[in-house]
Amino acid sequence: MSKVATSACPLNCWDSCGFKVTIEDGKVLKVDGDDSHPITKGKICGRGRMLADRTNSKERLLYPLKKVNGKFKQISWEQALDEISTKLHEYKEKFGTTSILHSHDYANSGLLTNLDQRFFNAYGGVTELTGSICWGAGIEAQTWDFGDSYAHSPTDIQHSKNIIVWGRNVARTNMHLYEVLQEAKRNGANLYVIDPIPNATAKIAHKYISIKPGMDGLLAIGIMKELFRLQLVDNEFIDNFTLGFEDLEALLQSVTLDQVSEMTEIPLDIITELAHVYGDCPTATLLGLGMQRYDNGGNTIRLIDALVAVSGNVGIPGGGANYGNKQVGQSFQFNELTLPNMKKTSRTFTMMKQAEGILNAIDPEIKMIIVTCGNPLTQVPDTNVVKDAFSSVETLVVIEQFMTDTAELADYVLPTTTVFEQEDIYYASMYHHYANYAPKLVDPPGEAKSDLWIWTQLAKRLGFGEVFDFTREQFMEMSIKDLAKNGITLDQFKKEFHVELPVQGVPWEDRKFKTPSGKFEFTSQLAEKKGFNGKLTASLPKESVWNDKPLAEKFPYTLLTIHPMRSNHSQHYHLFPVEPKVRVEIAENLATNLKLKENDYVQVWNERGTIEGYVKILKNAHPNTINIDEGIWSKYGGVVNRLTPSRESDNGLGSTLYDCLVNIKLLS
Ligand SMILES: Nc1nc2c(c(=O)[nH]1)N[C@H]1C(S)=C(S)[C@@H](COP(=O)(O)OP(=O)(O)OC[C@H]3O[C@@H](n4cnc5c(=O)[nH]c(N)nc54)[C@H](O)[C@@H]3O)O[C@H]1N2
Ligand SMILES: Nc1nc2c(c(=O)[nH]1)N[C@H]1C(S)=C(S)[C@@H](COP(=O)(O)OP(=O)(O)OC[C@H]3O[C@@H](n4cnc5c(=O)[nH]c(N)nc54)[C@H](O)[C@@H]3O)O[C@H]1N2
Ligand code: SF4
Ligand SMILES: [Mo]
């Protein structure tokens, strides 16, 4: 007899879907959408469905493994935990706790996943990662401008007259927004897509605007110039609720419209048209993460924020500079969960430069790395250096479900559970404001254990077992404690499975911003306090003809490495029925100029590395642009991050993954 249970998607994604999971004989048979979820409404993507295959896969890690003479050998949990805790104890005694690096990303959006931080804090504080490869620059940009990064609720978009999807690959990465866009179109809204690649969302847009990668800030400058010329700005908002307008004005005067058009490679009339669109409020701007993965990424998002502000689209229904929605995560009690006060010492490396951090660390050197919820060997830029770094330490421990590129390098691999094998509450601070409860549905295979069980066992052996002397239920209670004043309880989560969090649907409606001045800041006081120049600039990508001509002559094409359709980063490729291949997607002008045909085998390279793959011609993609989807494992020929730079963006310790010049040639 099969039964259907309610669950939730744990993947790092905009949508945070509700699931219905069919279970038979203690096994997950299939994963479908939960019709009753108010936002995701019964629809899920293939990555969500494939979580059944991930859970049942024969390739699951089932036992603790230890590398002996270069080969993995199965060991007992007892041995693994004893040996790892002994090392943690010895390293602490000899070199101090910061000789341990905790390398992680956000592969699981469960609240209790954060308990890894609780472990490392109680241990005394380790070397931690700061910043974010994912969205760091944009979050910092919005923090400088508004005081935080808040988005409008998904339903608010039905108030928009115009919608600009700016560097977000909605149909692929944020599927429920795609449906909302179609509905808004049916209700009469006009849809514009600005992107170097004419993605599936561009196909349903009234207008697709092809832009040279990394030039969006300049485009925003051009649109603002036209808004002022056409007198379509909101003077009341500028006069009463903003700071630093004179600096913005001076910047707008320093660039001509012809320069904007020439450098963004967008015709003048389109810039004017976009000014009319922004002036015709309410216009919603839906920002993606693509255009902030450049050296000038933070400034880009700030210029678009400024455009949204001067056009009067801040704090009104149907408007907004919608990027992250940090109000969602702010609903939970992370301090109680992670106990930052227990940390006695700490050191930080940035996520981007973790490899350099490891290789250059002195006093103490990094002796041990523990990896959770991340696969740095495929996902962190400049893979060749990452590999050197992760190979250089005495002890590498990876907590994983599968033998990933990172796990392959490990000294100890500890098998962990999937979403259906443990209870948790899931949320995403990206799009909607519902958190989802997922109970434990099946037993884990082999000896796989939850991450929490592993921390609990290690904590006991290290003498701080009491810090983990709570049940999952108690930890969940702890994380939602503050929501009690809104009448939200764990019982409600367990009964209803998705709970609406008390956040604002139209942020900044009261025109009270969380910046130091309380205003929207064109010139950021917070930035200045942190030692940056708080003014907006007309900065350009680093790997560009303007900033590095010799490099641009040697490597004339921009390489994007956007998120794959059917995999969440590196998590699904190995489950595809047909083995994945590296697809090198090229703009048509490259095919013509270099005489490349569909399926030709090519090499793409720069000074950091090289990759080979099969040509796919991208019709209407911006000239001189190449894309190779990120996430493919090295065994399938992938790891495109061998080519990407590990520089940090202009603010927020974000990434510069797409600020990457390459060359390409036909092989054989
Ligand atoms: N299928 C799938 N969905 C996912 C994920 C996944 O791996 N697979 N990952 C999830 C995660 S962690 C994240 S962070 C989100 C990311 O979600 P998105 O922000 O939608 O995804 P990205 O792949 O980062 O790229 C977004 C778009 O930016 C465009 N772009 C690149 N450079 C520029 C530029 O200079 N200017 C402009 N205007 N556009 C540019 C790309 O062409 C692409 O269409 O997706 C989430 N959803
Ligand atoms: N070139 C390029 N690189 C990129 C990007 C890009 O656009 N281009 N995007 C960047 C972005 S936006 C992001 S968010 C990062 C994502 O980077 P990662 O989060 O490192 O990527 P994932 O492939 O999701 O790998 C996470 C690993 O965590 C494991 N895992 C899943 N659930 C759990 C769990 O509950 N416990 C434990 N211990 N492990 C678990 C999975 O098996 C998987 O191997 O990649 C970044 N890298
Ligand atoms: S990956 Fe995203 S869209 Fe797909 S099921 Fe999970 S939350 Fe939903
Ligand atoms: Mo991400």
From TrEMBL:
Keywords: Iron, Iron-sulfur, Metal-binding, Molybdenum, Oxidoreductase
The organism's place on the tree of life at top rank: Bacteria
InterPro entries (UniProt xref): Asp_de-COase-like_dom_sf, MoPterin_dinucl-bd_dom, Mopterin_OxRdtase, Mopterin_OxRdtase_4Fe-4S_dom, Mopterin_OxRdtase_prok_CS, Prok_Mopterin_Oxidored
Pfam families: Molybdop_Fe4S4, Molybdopterin, Molydop_binding
Gene3D superfamilies the record matches: 2.40.40.20, 3.40.50.740, ADC-like domains, Dimethylsulfoxide Reductase, domain 2, Formate dehydrogenase/DMSO reductase
Keyword flag Iron-sulfur: yes
Cofactors that this protein relies on: Mo-bis(molybdopterin guanine dinucleotide)
Occurrences of domain 4Fe-4S Mo/W bis-MGD-type (ranges): 2-59
Entry's family note: Belongs to the prokaryotic molybdopterin-containing oxidoreductase family.
Name used for this protein in its record: Molybdopterin-dependent oxidoreductase
